[in-house]
Structure formats: structure tokens, C-alpha cells
């Protein structure tokens, strides 16, 4: 039974998504338990400070996140996560779709596990990002390595590279 003030899993998901879309790091991370976990791309971010940094990456990279097709089973919510950060927009890519799972404990997100992107998303990424990756390897390899850090600096590096790529293309045209 839902306790007073505690959101059901779908309400929690909707409120978390809204905070993410506003880039409200404090509100978004408040939906996680103190020992909450984000699993993404083979990495594991655990605890409040790591989750704050991961959400700062989203804010810096202007990563728009959404959750669609939710399926609730007890304390678990399976969804398709859609996300589109600044580089995706600069490259003209559709939002990336990935399977994700949330585990809710005591009214908060204990685990958010994001799987590999769907095959169609990977195919689109490969088709549109090839020239960018060639350019970034040749001219900005160190900056590209910084994007792997799931923190504000990594998100900002991605945003900056997206705009450097846009400038490069405009100058070449």
C-alpha cells in the first residue's frame, strides 16, 4: 500500500523525468535512495555524489531524457529510455532508444540500469557520426576522452565538441 506522500512507481517515473527534462540536478537526484545506483555503458555510479555528477553530465551535454512504454511489475519498472544530447542534435540524429529498468525501494529509485541502445539507434548513430568520429580522433582525441567521465566536465566536453564540429562544417562549406 502506498504511504501518504509516497509516489507510486509511475508517478515517481513521471516526476523524475520532469526533473531531468528541466535539468534540475537536485530534484532529479532526490528521487534516488542515498545508496542509489546508476548502471550505464558498463559503469556503475553509486551514492548521492556520483548520481549528482551523472546528472550534471546530462545538464552540461543538454541531454534530454524521457521514459516511454513503462511496464510495472511490483517494485520494478521496465521502460524504453529515449535520450538526445547536443551532439545527437548537431549530427541530426533521432533520440537514442535503450531498454532500461528501475528498481524502486521505499518510494525511491534504488537502481536505474540502462541497457545498450536498440539496433536501429546504433545503426543511425554509425551512419551519421562516422565523419565526426574521424574528425574528433584526428583533432580532439584528448577532449573526446574527457566525455567518458560521467560528470559535468565530461558533459561540457561533449557539448563543446558538438559545437566545434558544427563550426568546422560551417567553415568547410
Ends: how far apart? Answer: 61 Å
For the largest beta-sheet, the strand count, sense and barrel status come to: 6 strands, mixed
Strand line-up of the largest beta sheet: 2-1-6-5-4-3
CATH topology: Nuclear Transport Factor 2, Chain: A
- Per DSSP, the total helix count is 7
Give the amount of beta strand, in percent.
25-35%
> What is the H/E string?
HHEEHEEHEEHHH
* Rg over CA atoms: 17 Å
Helix content: 40-55%
Count of the domains: 1
The unreliable regions are: none
Could you tell me the mean pLDDT?
A: 94
Structure class: alpha+beta
State the name of the first-level CATH class. Answer: Alpha Beta
CATH architecture: Roll
Question: Which features characterize this protein?
Answer:
173 residues, alpha+beta, Nuclear Transport Factor 2, Chain: A, six-stranded mixed sheet, 7 helices
Can you offer a commentary on this structure?
This protein is an alpha+beta fold. It has one domain: Nuclear Transport Factor 2, Chain: A (Roll). 50% of the residues lie in helices and 28% in strands. It contains 7 helices and 6 strands. The protein has helices spanning 9-21, 25-30, 48-60, 86-91, 119-139, 141-146, 152-172; strands spanning 32-40, 43-46, 64-73, 76-84, 96-105, 108-114. Strands 2-1-6-5-4-3 form a 6-stranded mixed beta sheet, sandwiched between helices. Helix 3 packs parallel to helix 7. It is elongated. The protein starts with 8 loop residues before the first helix and ends with a helix.
Amino acid at each position: 500500500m502506498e504511504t501518504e506522500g509516497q509516489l507510486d512507481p509511475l508517478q515517481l517515473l513521471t516526476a523524475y523525468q520532469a526533473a531531468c527534462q528541466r535539468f534540475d540536478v537536485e530534484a532529479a537526484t532526490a528521487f534516488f535512495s542515498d545508496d542509489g545506483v546508476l548502471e550505464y555503458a558498463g559503469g556503475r555510479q553509486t551514492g548521492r555524489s556520483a548520481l549528482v555528477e551523472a546528472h550534471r553530465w546530462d545538464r552540461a551535454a543538454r541531454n534530454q531524457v524521457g521514459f516511454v512504454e513503462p511496464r510495472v511489475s511490483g517494485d520494478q519498472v521496465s521502460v524504453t529510455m529515449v535520450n538526445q544530447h547536443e551532439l545527437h542534435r548537431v549530427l541530426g540524429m533521432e533520440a537514442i532508444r535503450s531498454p532500461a529498468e528501475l528498481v524502486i525501494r521505499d518510494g525511491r529509485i534504488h537502481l536505474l540500469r540502462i541497457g545498450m541502445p536498440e539496433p536501429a539507434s546504433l545503426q543511425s548513430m554509425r551512419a551519421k557520426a562516422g565523419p565526426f568520429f574521424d574528425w574528433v580522433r584526428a583533432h580532439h582525441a584528448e577532449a573526446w576522452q574527457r566525455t567518458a567521465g560521467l560528470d559535468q566536465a565530461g558533459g561540457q566536453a561533449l557539448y563543446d565538441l558538438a559545437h566545434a564540429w558544427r563550426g568546422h562544417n560551417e567553415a568547410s562549406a
